[in-house]
Amino acid sequence: MIRKVLIGIAVIAAGLIFGLFLILKFYKPPLSGNFGKVDAKLFVGPGNDQPLIVAFGGSQGGNTWAENYWGDVRSKLLEKGYAVLAVGYFKTGNTPETLDRISLNAIRDTIMSISHHPKINNNKIALLGSSRGAELVLNLASRYNDFGAVIALVPSHATFPSLTTFVNTSAWTFDGEELTYVGIPFTALGPAMRGESVKAIEIALESLDDSSKSIIPVQDISGPILLLSAKNDALWPSKYMSDKIVSRLAENNFKYYYEHFSFDGGHHDTKMHFDKVFEFLDNHFKPLESK
Q1: pLDDT at 28
Q2: How far is 165 from 139, CA to CA, in rounded Å?
Q3: Residues of the chain under the 50 pLDDT cut
Q4: C-alpha distances in angstroms, 198 versus 72, 102, 214, 236, 288?
Q5: C-alpha of 12 from chain center
Q6: How far apart are CA 83 and CA 143, in angstroms?
Q7: Do residues 3 and 91 share a domain?
Q8: Is 131:59 a contact under the CB 8 Å cutoff?
Q9: Same domain, 102 and 54
Q10: Same domain flag for 26 and 61
Q11: Residue 82 shares a structural domain with residue 225
């Protein structure tokens, strides 16, 4: 009797695992009704010919660069002669609710449309993103040559999946196709469920080599790059992944300036090191006549 019960439990468990496999392999949630919609808020100073800094938040969603938290940094950028475009790409009310198959094309089109503001120099556009927003800006600048500099705060060197229940879609689309993303193996599920996100991501990255299509082609970026990583990052291994970006740039004889600054601190401590961002922008992005 006990043996039959155990066999029954095993059959049910196998069925559940097989069902989960089928879901992960074949089921994809429908695209958001707000697919392709982007929220953006422009902050401009009094001058003319202002270089534009396009700023993105991370996995928390919303338009964080339009909020009070970044207000002092926005003000400093405006004082230094930059305009700031704060972009929200999900969870703003008007955009997709989840970080899932966000259109890079729509984001680029929104930026370029707003960059025609009469006070902005639309030949001088820099992208600035943090965490998943850093993943976004590296992917965006790798595919469009409209952007003259990239600042990636606690970034990844590869494209990761969506933040949906089954994490079986890409976070980004380009020209109607999902970007290839790092697969999450079953061995990473245990650490992920225990909240050990760094361990889970490290497991996912173990099988990745430099030829993987999920690796962001940063060597195609058309301008200087600044990377800031956290030595004690508890969300994902941003230092390791920034080192991988630097290695890829070096191996491809990247012709522009690039720098990786790794600080003592955690994932959310980038704001304390914004002097590096101001220095980078002033030295490698601002037009000479504006310095």
Answers
A1: 87
A2: 23
A3: 1-22, 291
A4: 30, 24, 18, 5, 41
A5: 40
A6: 23
A7: no
A8: yes
A9: yes
A10: no
A11: yes
Q: How far is CA 175 from CA 85, 107, 178, 216, 224, in A?
A: 23, 12, 8, 16, 25
Instruction: State pLDDT tens for residues 6-35.
Output: 344 444 444 444 444 445 556 889 999 999
CB neighbours of 280 closer than 8 A, spacing ≥ 6?
A: 149, 151, 224, 226, 259
Q: Is 150 exposed, middle or buried (0-12, 13-18, 19+ CB in 10 A)?
A: buried
pLDDT at 26: 67
Tokens representing 183? Answer: 């697969």
| Residues 26 and 50 grouped into a single domain | no
The predicted structure's pLDDT at residue 109 = 98
**pLDDT on residue 290:** 52
Number of domains in the chain: 2
Q: Which domain holds residue 23?
A: 1-30
Contact between 35 and 29 (Cβ < 8 Å): no
- Please tell me whether residues 224 and 280 are part of one structural domain: yes
- Are residues 26 and 52 located together in one domain of the fold? no
14 and 56 fall within a common domain: no
